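DM from R.C. (forwarded with permission)

"hey, sorry to bug you on a friday — could you get me a structure for this? deadline for the figure draft is monday and I only need the backbone to look sensible"
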Amino acid sequence: MVPAGWTSTAPAIAAFNNYLYLIVKDANDNKIWWNKMDTAGAWSGWRLMDGLSPSTAAMTEFNGQLYIVVRGADDKIYYRSMTTAEVFSSWSCVPGFTNDSPAICSFICRLYLVVKSNAGNEIYYNSMSASGVWGTFIMMDGLSPSTAALSAPKVY
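My reply, with the result:
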């Protein structure tokens, strides 16, 4: 449970650096909280992350770091990364807007981001190269009233 509160949205979860990371947003004030579980199943305890989000966050491992993407309180799309030493980068903005939760995954040396349009049910995707350069949003065929989701295979 989020300290002194609860979450009204689904949590985001991702495996990174031999831990399972969990992010939730507090239902009362949209603050973002994170926790991690080690291989023995012990949770480290809730920690507050700077920033606010009215929606579920998304996470994935990419380029040796954990990437986190959120919808900001202003409906802009923000992302940051965390190193294996749990040092966070500053929030950066991906040009574009959404009124729903973003989805991300890494695939073939790129970080993919999918969002629903801020104005309707159109679905857009964008990708970031391994060097950290984002492309432009491209509209996909079809419409969806639901939150976007992504998954990519992991090759072992």
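R.C.: lifesaver. The mean pLDDT is 88.
me: no worries. Residues 12-143 form a domain with the Tachylectin-2; Chain A fold (CATH 2.115.10.20).
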